[in-house]
Amino acid sequence: MSESTPSGFKCGYVTIVGRPSAGKSTLLNRLVGEKVAITSDKPQTTRNRILGYVNRPNGQIAFIDTPGLIKPFHAMHTRMMSVAHSAIGEADVVIWMVDTTERDGPHNRPIADLLRQSGKPVILALNKVDKAAKTQLLPLMAGLGNRLNFKAVNPISARTGDGVEGLLKAILAELSEGPALFPADEFTDKSERFLVSELIRESIIQCCGQEVPYATAVLVRAWEDEREQGGKIRIAADIMLEREGQKAIVIGKQGSMLKKIGTAARTEIEALLDAPVYLELFVKVRKGWREDDRAVREVIEGH
């Protein structure tokens, strides 16, 4: 312990895992107090390993958000699952996040097996208790308890914040003493370019139908800060799709959908950067990019 570290101060890495749409990214944003991970009601929204830092007087926790655990069907899925598995290996503690509106079943067996094999201490976070009937909780807790021995079980609502401070206390109880790993004024390891690309992708997810979001990637190609000359931050980004039909959907009639996407994204980006932004979006088709290892690496790792 350094002289500047308070006695009893704890720190460590905590990986959040679970099925798609369990609320992992919502929890991360709630804990960090900043929007570091995009959210939606569509599964597979999170594709990357996203680190968010939570600072408390008695500790610092580096949370790792991960893609929802699924059976992979193409190269991008395989890369996403590799990201999630590696993040479990990095963890001092793992949070298994479960949607309490779903029943326990065979879909939870592979996750329990994976966590058991990891040998990591696991805390169960039962999310969406604000939406679940209380009669569902006990059978769910019993079923999951038969699958894995948990260090703690915490019912929470990532959306409202109910139970989240109790979850933090349970996590800190499992971490070791040590100095902070990151500066207290930082909240993520991701660059502004990455966060901007994700905000654009979130806007596409919110504005478009069911098929398009899964086939979408966003790559920031240019970034010029002209504020010293009295201008704006000028950002140019490519929206990458798999088919011409998807391109037509994203552009819309006379460019109406692309304008809607850009307007919504620019509002979020200006809030993130606390600066005026000029945003240019270009829609491109790269057939079968989710099966292209090079393209997937650029999307998953290239920010």
How would you concisely characterize the structure shown here?
With 303 residues, the chain is α/β, with parallel strands linked by helices.
List the helices and strands and how they pair.
Elements: E1 10-18, H1 24-32, E2 50-56, E3 59-65, H2 75-90, E4 93-99, H3 109-118, E5 122-127, H4 134-147, E6 152-155, H5 164-174, E7 176-177, H6 192-207, E8 217-225, E9 233-241, H7 244-251, H8 256-273, E10 277-285, H9 293-301
Parallel strand pairs: 1-3, 1-4, 4-5, 5-6, 9-10
Antiparallel strand pairs: 1-7, 2-3, 8-9
Characterise the protein shown here.
With 303 residues, this protein is α/β, with parallel strands linked by helices. The chain has two domains: 10-177, 3-Layer(aba) Sandwich (Rossmann fold); 192-301, K homology (KH) domain (GMP Synthetase, Chain A, domain 3, 2-Layer Sandwich). Helices cover 37% and strands 23% of the residues. Strands 1, 2, 3, 4, 5, 6 and 7 form a seven-stranded mixed beta sheet that branches. Helix 2 packs across helix 9 (293-301) and helix 6 runs antiparallel to helix 8.
